Amino acid sequence: MEPLTLISEYRIPKLEISAEVSLLAHPQKEVKLFLHEHAETHAGAERPSDLLNGPGEFFPAVEPSGKLVLLHRDSVTVISVSAESEFPADESGEGTEDPEQAAKVPVEVIIQGGTVIRGTVRFVLPEGRNRLIDFLNMPDRFLTVREDGLARLINKRRIVRITVI
Question: Is residue 18 part of a domain?
């Protein structure tokens, strides 16, 4: 078997999405992220939040020049992607959660450095543990805030304050 054929047999199909990434002490940059066509934890394709909340310290991205960069998850402040790449079902934001049971909380998030993001946080948790603070204290590294046609994935370690609005 030829080496090229061997390599292509192990290649995993990926979906390419555009994103804007803000890193600690660096200006916002446009990059391409690569998501699996099939998520490990839910039906459908991998979402940006799956990538960011996944295992490991680093994940790959490609700059507009074509240069591969490896980004350290803890250095990422915010990644902005289209809402449809994070909430693929439709514009109403229905994903894996039941829209009737999902809590939708309008918030204002202040991030280190003073950046303010306003939008909606959606989540489904069991009765008795379904407050915003319960959701924020879950082990995921990133909080997803929907702001119109964007999903902003915010590193929880970089959040200074969240206000319910």
Answer: yes
